[in-house]
């Protein structure tokens, strides 16, 4: 892959839009060469509520990223979230030969047929399939095959993870990106964050990535190197801020400052801190203890983790998460949050910092930018997988190797073509 090739990610969150420009090295690891960020109030819990504000924020972030990188942006991978996102695990397959006494060597067209058969249509009107992620393959009843290329048999089945979303929300999100930019793929924010903060060992052993953003909490479960479950809760750090503002009757701006500067996930840890003077809506002032602020925030975080625990229970995958929980997103910077997570979720927990790219500035080495970094890492991996490579044999072409390398890279592939 040429080092001058540029990969761009656009992470559209509830409170901010981040555009990351990177160049992949020969092994597909991105090197960040520029970035842009713009605040937005046009999103609520992952859904667009003001199209113009979101479109303007995307345009501003793109312009800044072009200036800092010195490159013109013509295509990008774009993240999405929201409680309209749903998932299911599906399977489907194809017969490799019509003659019972013949066997057939599995090639790329066979994989494509199996994946197409494992791509169910949405059961509800107004929804569409956004991602089809291969998890594993089965050949003639032998399951757990990660790379079926070259194996011979009579039938090939694919087990997939299918993500669906609201057609209108997806359409509006794509429209918010400048028309001069080709949307290469749409990637869930949880999947992008997992790409950035979860190690291959953690994804192999089984882990849940919990990305607590401003307006949503994205849940992504990885088992045996592939994604098995996706869910989005319509709650995040902004709810903590709103709780403080409501209880203390203080402006939202001041409530945000109280959360960032004084809150602790374990309220007892805030004991001994001096009282804080706060402004009230009637322009008077009052004092409040850091512990009281922490109790307000902790109650909301406990509620979020309890909902995550319930979601994991419904998925039936709680017992398969040997590597525990990886917390990321801006709210995961709250002191003591990993301890609270371990208590509520009853599993090991750590805070995940983006580590899937080189040349990251200090500002990007924060959980708040996990999805922004992860989406370019995802794009670099896809680009590496689809780059022309020498054929392994006269019967195995470059696209065959692309599918194989993409699947083996992290157990994830996106077969959706985005239209605008």
What's a concise summary of this model?
The chain has 420 residues and is of the alpha+beta class. The chain has eleven helices and 20 strands.
Account of the protein in words:
- The chain has helices at residues 51-69, 108-117, 167-175, 189-197, 200-205, 237-248, 252-262, 290-315, 337-345, 370-386, 398-410, and strands spanning 7-12, 16-24, 30-39, 43-44, 47-48, 75-80, 86-95, 104-105, 127-139, 142-145, 152-153, 155-166, 182-188, 207-212, 217-223, 226-233, 276-279, 285-288, 324-328, 349-351.
- The chain is globular, with a radius of gyration of 23 Å.
- A hairpin with a 2-residue loop joins strand 15 and strand 16 (226-233).
- It has a five-stranded mixed sheet, with helices on both faces. The chain has a five-stranded mixed sheet with strand order 16-15-14-19-20, with helices on both faces.
- The protein has 420 residues and is α+β, with helices and mostly antiparallel strands.
């Amino acid at each position: 892959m040429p080092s001058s090739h540029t990969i761009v990610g656009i992470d559209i969150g509830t409170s901010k839009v981040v555009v990351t420009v990177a160049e992949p090295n020969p092994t597909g690891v991105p090197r960040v060469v520029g970035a842009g960020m713009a605040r937005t109030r046009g999103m609520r819990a992952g859904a667009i509520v003001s199209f113009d504000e979101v479109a303007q924020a995307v345009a501003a972030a793109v312009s800044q990223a072009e200036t800092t990188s010195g490159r013109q942006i013509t295509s990008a991978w774009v993240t999405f979230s929201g409680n309209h996102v749903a998932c299911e695990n599906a399977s489907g397959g194809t017969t490799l030969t019509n003659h019972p006494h013949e066997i057939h060597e599995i090639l790329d067209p066979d994989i494509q047929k199996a994946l197409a058969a494992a791509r169910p249509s949405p059961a509800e009107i107004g929804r569409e399939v956004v991602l089809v992620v291969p998890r594993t393959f089965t050949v003639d009843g032998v399951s757990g095959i990660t790379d079926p290329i070259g194996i011979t048999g009579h039938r090939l089945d694919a087990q997939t993870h299918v993500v669906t979303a609201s057609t209108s929300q997806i359409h509006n999100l794509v429209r918010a990106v400048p028309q001069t930019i080709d949307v290469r793929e749409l990637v869930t924010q949880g999947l992008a964050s997992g790409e950035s903060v979860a190690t291959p060992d953690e994804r192999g052993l089984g882990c849940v990535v919990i990305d607590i953003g401003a307006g949503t909490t994205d849940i992504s479960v990885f088992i045996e190197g592939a994604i098995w479950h996706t869910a989005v809760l319509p709650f995040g750090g902004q709810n903590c801020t709103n709780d403080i503002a409501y209880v203390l009757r203080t402006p939202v701006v001041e409530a945000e400052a109280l959360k960032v500067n004084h809150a602790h996930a374990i309220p007892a840890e805030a004991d001994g801190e001096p009282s804080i003077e706060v402004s009230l809506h009637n322009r008077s002032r009052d004092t409040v203890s850091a512990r009281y602020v922490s109790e307000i925030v902790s109650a909301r975080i406990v509620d979020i983790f309890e909902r995550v625990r319930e979601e994991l229970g419904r998925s039936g995958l709680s017992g398969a998460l040997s590597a525990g929980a990886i917390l990321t997103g801006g709210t995961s910077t709250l002191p003591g949050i990993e301890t609270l997570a371990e208590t509520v979720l009853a599993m090991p927990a750590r805070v995940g910092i983006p580590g899937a790219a080189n040349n990251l500035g200090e500002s990007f080495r924060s959980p708040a930018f996990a999805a922004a970094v992860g989406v370019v890492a995802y794009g670099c991996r896809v680009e590496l997988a689809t780059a022309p490579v020498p054929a392994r044999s006269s019967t195995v072409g470059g696209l065959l190797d692309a599918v194989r390398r993409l699947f083996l890279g992290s157990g994830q592939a996106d077969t959706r073509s985005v239209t605008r």
